[in-house]
Design a protein that fits this description.
about 300 residues, alpha/beta, Rossmann fold, Alpha-Beta Plaits, 2 domains, six-stranded mixed β-sheet, four-stranded antiparallel β-sheet
Length: about 300
């Protein structure tokens, strides 16, 4: 389990993370969503002991990360796939990690096989790896010690569609086996497919959190028909708000309520469904619309290290 309580991280007058509280539970994938500069990466860096908190607390498996005697056996971390020794081979990196954790060399071969890095690829120096290969190596390192918690920041970056599907399946199986997975990503569709719980952060503060089902239920219904004008009027008369979605409408009500309005008004529908994926994107944009950090620093100013994302 991961527990973050009232976490704040400031760099001088700039507050990157502002009173963040969240819990990621065993057996579930928790999606950590937010626009660039929202505080996601800073939160994960504090959680994994790379950046000190200004105030608040973070715990993994009931203890601070820095207090874990052999962290790799309890927490698998992948924050930056490019932060690997470019002069070592993939096999060397995994072998050194295995020795540090006190694991058998056989575990290295198991991980290389799991992440589909061939013998020839594992013998190449990391400087010659593509970003996708580095992501696979980073995940292999994170899973090496069979940890009960995974903390991953944008693990699908650089992966092709097949690689993203593979990554999603690995994380889903890992959570189904009882592990805690905290996954930060800007790929909303992938989060929607794999996550059980969602935490949305904007400008350093949590703006929404709950189960995926709870948050998507608030996304409403997508409805289409040949007479949208009449449908919009009937829905407004029933007290429902509508917004345009392509050639249809999104309604702030569940499908049953929308269908009842249409039947009562004798309006023909061609589509009626829960908002689902489109709802997640719209929910994300609506929740973070007022928290986008769009200002560009003027020449001569600096952004605090570690304050991005």
């Amino acid at each position: 389990m991961i527990t973050i309580e009232s976490l704040t991280k400031s760099y001088g007058r700039f507050t990157a993370v502002d009173d963040v509280t969240l819990t990621a539970r065993p057996g579930r994938v928790t999606g950590f969503l937010g626009p660039n500069g929202a505080g996601k990466s800073t939160t994960l860096r504090v959680l994994t002991g790379l950046t000190p908190a200004t105030s608040g607390s973070t715990e993994v498996c009931g203890r601070r990360y820095v207090d874990l005697p052999n962290p790799g056996l309890e927490v698998g971390v992948l924050l930056d796939a490019s932060a690997q020794h470019a002069g070592r081979t993939g096999r060397e990196i995994l072998t050194l990690a295995a020795r540090t954790m006190g694991l058998s060399p056989r575990r290295v071969d198991e991980m290389l096989d799991l992440v589909s890095l061939s013998e020839a690829e594992s013998a190449r120096r990391v400087r010659h790896y593509s970003l996708g290969m580095r992501q696979r190596l980073g995940l292999a390192t994170a899973l090496l010690g069979r940890p009960e918690v995974l903390v991953l920041d944008e693990p699908a970056n650089g992966l092709d569609p097949a690689g993203i599907r593979w990554m999603r399946d690995v994380l889903r199986r890992y959570a189904d086996d009882g592990a805690t997975v905290l996954l930060s990503s800007h790929l909303l569709h992938e989060i929607e497919v794999v996550a059980d719980d969602l935490v949305v952060i904007g400008q350093g503060r949590i703006v929404a959190q709950g189960t995926k089902a709870e948050l998507l239920a608030s996304a409403g219904t997508v409805v289409r028909g040949p007479d949208l004008l009449a449908l919009r009027g009937a829905l407004a008369a029933a007290g429902h708000r509508t917004t345009d979605v392509g050639d249809g409408l999104r309604v702030d009500a569940d499908p049953a309520a929308v269908g009842h309005v249409a039947v009562t008004a004798s309006i023909h529908l061609t589509e009626l469904r829960a908002a689902d994926g489109a709802g997640l994107e719209e929910m994300f944009l609506e929740l973070t619309a007022g928290t986008q950090r769009e200002a560009t620093p003027s020449r001569g100013t600096t952004t605090p290290a570690g304050a991005a994302a």
